[in-house]
Records
---
Amino acid sequence: QKEYDMDLAKVQQLLLPFKTKSNPFFISRAGFADFVTSKNNHVFNPDTAVATASSDMYCRVLKAGCRCVELDCWDGDDGEPIIFHGHTLTTRIKFEDACIAIRDYAFFASDYPVILSLENHCCLEQQRRMASIMKMCFGASIAMPLDPRNYNSSYLPSPKQLKKKIIIKGKTLLTHYELNADGTIRREMKMKVASELSDITFLRSVAYTDCAQFQDTEQSGEDGSAEPAKPKPWEICSFSELAPKSLDKRLLVEFNKTNFSRIYPKGSRIESSNYSAHPHWSNGSQLVALNLQTMGKVSWANEGRFKDNGGCGYVLKPPEMLHDYRKPFSPDEFPTPESRPPIKLKIEVLSARQLPKSSRKKGDIVNPFVTVSIVGMTCDSKSKSTKVVKANGFNPYWGKTVEFDIHMPEMATILFLVYDEDTFASLHGRFKIAYYSIPVTCVKEGYRIMELYDDSGKKCPMSDLF
């Protein structure tokens, strides 16, 4: 009986679904050396040009583990600031209602800090009201700005040190600094920001053109003009998804070793489509804001990415992107002959059970096949597929083995997509019916059962991939 119990326990361990555990070391490193799950424009559902706004969206994304939320703030007609997606037909919600929702659900899924990214279009009077509301709602949970006179570290405190804190990101009175030609006098550039709001803003937004890392240091100051100062660790740059393409990637990686950068969708994405997050993570950008209300490969890969580290919303960067890595790193030049050797990942897709039917296809017959994709560095991103099993969505068997060489496993996510082939379909002859995603770093040897999810992110009842 004892031997039987031991064998049964071993089999049960092998057949467990994928699980991830929290690593305290990941979140105790100074400088926020992590990627942070981040979402753009939280107040509306899909079809944003005509969507109805609701503070419930903040509750939903925070409960799902999101750690950075955006508040697009505008003047309200009654003196109360409002939130809506500017220049669209979305309805308005009160800034106060959004803050109440954030207060109630900020630490529902994780105790690690939540970042509020303020898009501030309000007048000074309503900015003061914003500050008053946040003080009332968040109280002592607000992470107060660091004092430059007393804070000598080159890095921010770690997420562990800021547990249960609300971090406010936005413009402040002192937006950036300039040095005179002799390097002795610092001039402060002032913005139209209420002092009450500036006084509780932890992450100060600056333009990347004002940062020393992105300047030609050999030419700066030759004509007597001021040289830009090296940014302080609490200064953050925001980029449209297109902007980093024109920057030196090595400089961007170096900047992100000590400072935050945030990527947001280009303005033409009014229908809430998504861009690929991985090129920006490859540059070391911590906050890559996606339209997570739009389901698809990008949001599914993002979901898998942040299952690591126990799903706390923070995932440690690869060693090449940390501040104690002294060699220059560029994702455009990776891998180099000096890079670490790739790991070999071997996956055998055996079978599935009770696959759902596509809502876009007529009839009850399912002809399933599975695509296994690695989503990560450019050199690692590849896809391989099984054969099609005809007319069997109940218990299809594939027995297909796929292999991948992965040079940077910390950046790689495995995305399993289950398709239904339809030779009469008008678009590509196939429909996505289910998915599952998991970080490569969470994969262990053995047999695993993967719960499948439908296009909307809901679990498919009794449906698994083996």
Note: Confidence is low (pLDDT under 50) at residues 46-50, 175-180, 183-187, 217-224.
---
Amino acid sequence: MADGFMKYIDAISNVFKRSPSKKSLIWSGRNACDVPCYPIKPLDPHVIGACTGPLSGLSHIQLDSDGPHDPVPAAGIANWNHPLVEADGISLSLYDHKAEAAGRHGDPNADVYAVIARPNSAILVVADGCNWGPKPRQAARCAANGSVQHLNGLLFGSSAPCNTQGVTQVILESFNSAQMSIVRNGGTTTTLCVAVVCELAIPQGDLRWGVCVVSVGDSPCFVWQSKARQVIEVTSAAHEGQNRDMRDSGGCLGANVGDKPDLGNLTCSFALLSEGDIVFVTSDGVADNFDPVTLLEGVAQPTTPAHSASPPPVSLPVLTPDQRQAALLANLARIIECSRSRSKDEFLHAWEVMEAIVKHIIGVTDCLRSCMESSDFDNPALTSLERRTKELEVKEKLKTMRGKLDHATVAVYEVSCTSTNNNT
């Protein structure tokens, strides 16, 4: 089965050709051989911190059931309820509350995250089920569970990879386990981004660490570079030179066509890291709320003449895809830097970055939520015509408001040799 999946990846690579590229300290391509081959130190298998969510996260993959709120042993981890200041995650809904029922529109939250910290490595996973409902959530849970189970089985011990290409290959093969789990357990489709941070055997100057990432879809991986005080996107090759399309993830695992995934933007990436850098993987519900177009700071440059029929508002600059990406990263860096200025420590901790991101996305979407909650769409007394009229009125109001309502998920890890005193 794994061989078949890898052959499928090779076949897709021949259709969607992408040359290996290096940008700053980021390498990317379609396969593990496209990233650099740095020797790594043996990865210590002792788990010192782990968390998953929302609710029971990847530890509960039964369809049509929320399962226990406390994560249970799963995917090779005995205790999923042990976040650290250096390794944590959160998933929340930015959608408006329902007027006539409990919960929010968009429930259930179809995102899943998992973070596992070890003395000289970490695994970060985010899966974002495509569309709403139990089956997309099932796909995300199964993808995260299958991938993490595979990684925990093959990254440690006598047969573990000894270099960054080997780690990337193991991550890539874990996508086969994710795909099989989705199909076997009745999920639909999901994005998946998996990052493994590891310590290099031979430091590259003061860069003693690296992060190997494989992604499909629009769940990106970022790094806060603590010394340069800037943010880079490790997965940028997945959309390089293209306008972000919030209606199309660009790829997915699961039953996209029959039982086949869509690996159109599958990307293997690698970046060098310094101690104190913070790696964070997010769903698009986070990334899109730092996008300058979503924040009404600019408009996207039309990609075809057909899209340029109506001129943009004169007050907003027209942004190329590269300018849009640069502004998104600058917005992230600004929010994190503000958090850094309030911190008493020289370096930020992972939880502080996570907190800053969450405060921003909640604040940016406040007006949208309030507008939707006051719209009274769910009022059963409304006629079809009245409801349609209200919908059109609200739609016009929403065009003037910043932000995007979505499920929003962050998994974060602070790069460091973490103490083994608190094994879990």
Note: Residues 12-18 have pLDDT under 50 and may be disordered.
